[in-house]
Write a structure and sequence with these properties.
The chain is mainly beta. It contains one helix and eleven strands, in the order ββββββαβββββ. The longest helix is centred in the middle third of the chain and has 8 residues. The radius of gyration is 18 Å and the shape is elongated.
């Protein structure tokens, strides 16, 4: 069976996260440096293997002081754990353009299984003649599961930061052409 490797196009992809702040609002951030690929069999993506690596120091919440705090030991410990990695263990079509992807997420030296929803956006040939596919990946992880336990209490006794982190990745892949 023919296997095809699809490489993430970082110019047309993004990895975002959202977390509740002071119970009343949401802070959004992104990672600016990441790479990955998927290996599929036949023509579809059912049972594809997905690999992703994220550079923790590329975190961007649009506020430099917060980014530095997120990189320190209270959160990501970026000097000790500079990479976040993900490797899928299953990628199953649940009907139409919807998939469920399960895999091992390693964050801050802790590896846990996570389940993510994937919506296939379709395919298109680029102006250069390269086939591209688009996906939106969403899910929720609990930061406490990965040792990110830092928090503060508000004056009303609520947690300053939520425990759940919403993930949204808009990913475009292109067929990796042999050199």
């Amino acid at each position: 069976m023919k296997k095809t490797t699809w490489t993430i196009d970082p110019l047309h992809s993004e990895i975002l996260f959202k977390i509740r702040h002071l119970v009343i609002s949401t802070v959004t951030g992104s990672f600016q440096k990441f790479e990955g690929h998927a290996v599929s069999e036949a023509d579809g993506f059912n049972n594809a293997k997905v690999y992703l690596t994220i550079d923790v120091k590329s975190i961007d919440t649009n506020q430099a002081q917060r980014d530095v705090h997120l990189q320190n030991g209270d959160f990501f410990s970026a000097d000790l754990y500079p990479l976040i990695t993900f490797e899928s263990t299953s990628f199953v079509n649940t009907g139409g353009n919807n998939f469920v992807m399960v895999g091992d997420l390693t964050l801050r030296g802790v590896t846990k299984p996570v389940e993510l929803n994937v919506e296939y956006g379709g395919s298109q040939r680029s102006l250069q003649g390269v086939i591209k596919h688009g996906f939106e990946v969403t899910g929720v992880i609990n930061r406490m599961d990965f040792g990110m336990t830092w928090n503060v209490l508000t004056d009303t006794g609520n947690l300053g930061l939520g425990e759940n982190i919403k993930l949204v990745a808009n990913i475009q892949v292109s067929e990796q052409v042999a050199a």
